[in-house]
Design brief:
Oligomer: single chain
Structural class: alpha/beta
Largest sheet: 6 strands, mixed
CATH architecture of the largest domain: Alpha-Beta Complex
Order of helices and strands: EHEEHEEEHHEHEHEHEHEHEHEHE
CATH superfamily of the largest domain: Medium-chain alcohol dehydrogenases, catalytic domain
Helix content: 25-40%
Shape: globular
CATH class of the largest domain: Alpha Beta
Number of domains: 2
Strand content: 15-25%
Mean pLDDT: 97
Distance between the termini: 13 Å
Radius of gyration: 20 Å
């Protein structure tokens, strides 16, 4: 089978290479999926660049955890009725060397949920890290009905879905965005107001948008940078669910101020979510796909031969929406 892999760390154009691997043999509890699409996420490009030094200890890595395709074989303990099933994939390259940037992937059956016919393979490749992370950030600390949720970076891959999950859960949403196009998108998804996080003192703008009241919860894309303003607009007893702190990788926190606000800080990473949370996210995602109640945004689709360009686009940091690679050319 054709794969894109890397056997050393470095720039995408220098280390990603096309190779021929043996098609994997399906084992007990596993399914063999003919991959149609592979989703590219920031964690994938960070791994390729060397964020996990031991990743290559056992040999080359086929990147990407997310994807979609069709089951072609099942292992012992998996129902034959799954043969031919359309599926979306998550955690394909978590704790394993071989991910979805290949013509085939072998994966535990539970990591290959059914992909409803209403959803394309491109959409399926967006459900893993973006949609599941957003689901956990919004639902991980109980119902949001009747609450106000602030979603920072509402036009980003995770923020885009977080707005929708919060609105669907009965919350009022305030989002942040840095330009008019992203502001319009957040409002179209259901946010009642949008504030510009590039401006000084944007926390006070959030308060004004919420009738002078602090927000109940925050879904945050840049914990270290955003924390000072978040503390200016979150209520006592509120919760910050954060899934990234890229600009300040080792942020310091004003402990006493946060303690006296009785805040909960919930750090979210989809790979290590409790299994019950993963299955809840899968169930809600598939219900939404069936009912077509989620909006999706695929920013760009690349052929497998241009995998390096897809990684480079993610690394630019300005792309809005999911980046997908088609593995069938």
């Amino acid at each position: 089978m054709k794969v894109i892999c890397f056997e050393k760390f470095g720039a995408a154009a220098e280390v990603l290479q096309s190779r021929d691997f043996e098609k994997p043999e399906v084992g007990p509890g596993e399914v063999l999926v003919r991959v149609h699409t592979s989703g590219v996420n920031p964690s994938d490009v960070k791994k390729r660049a060397g964020a996990f030094p031991n990743l290559l200890d056992d040999g080359p890595v086929i990147p990407h955890s997310d994807g979609a395709g069709i089951i072609e074989a099942v292992g012992d303990g998996v129902a034959d009725t799954r043969l031919g099933e359309r599926v979306w994939l998550y955690q394909a390259q978590f704790g394993r060397r071989f991910g979805t940037l290949a013509e085939y992937v072998m994966i535990p059956s539970e990591r290959a949920p059914t992909l409803p016919e209403q959803a394309s393979f491109e959409v399926g490749a967006c459900m893993g890290i973006p949609a599941m992370t957003a689901h956990r950030c919004v639902t991980g600390d109980g119902p949001v009905s009747g609450q106000t949720v602030l979603v920072t970076g509402g036009a980003g891959r995770v923020g885009f879905y977080a707005i929708q999950w919060a609105v669907a859960g009965g919350a009022e949403v305030i989002a942040t965005a840095s330009n008019a196009k992203d502001e319009s998108m957040c409002l179209a998804l259901g946010a009642k107001a949008v504030c510009n996080h590039r401006l000084a003192n944007w926390g006070s703008e959030v308060l004004a948008a919420n009738r002078g009241q602090p927000v109940d919860r925050v879904v945050d894309v840049e914990f270290g940078v955003n924390l000072p303003e978040v503390l200016n607009c979150i209520r006592t007893g509120g919760t910050i669910s954060t899934y990234s702190s890229t600009q300040e990788k080792e942020p310091s926190i004003p402990f006493l101020r946060m303690m006296y606000l009785d805040l909960t800080v919930h750090m979210v990473i989809v790979y290590d979510m409790p299994e019950a949370a993963k299955q809840m996210a899968v169930a809600d995602i598939n219900e939404a796909l069936l009912r077509e109640t989620l909006e999706h945004r695929v920013a760009e689709t690349f052929p497998m031969s241009r995998a390096a360009a897809a990684h480079e686009l993610i690394e630019q940091g300005s792309i809005r929406g999911c980046v997908v690679i088609e593995t069938r050319e």
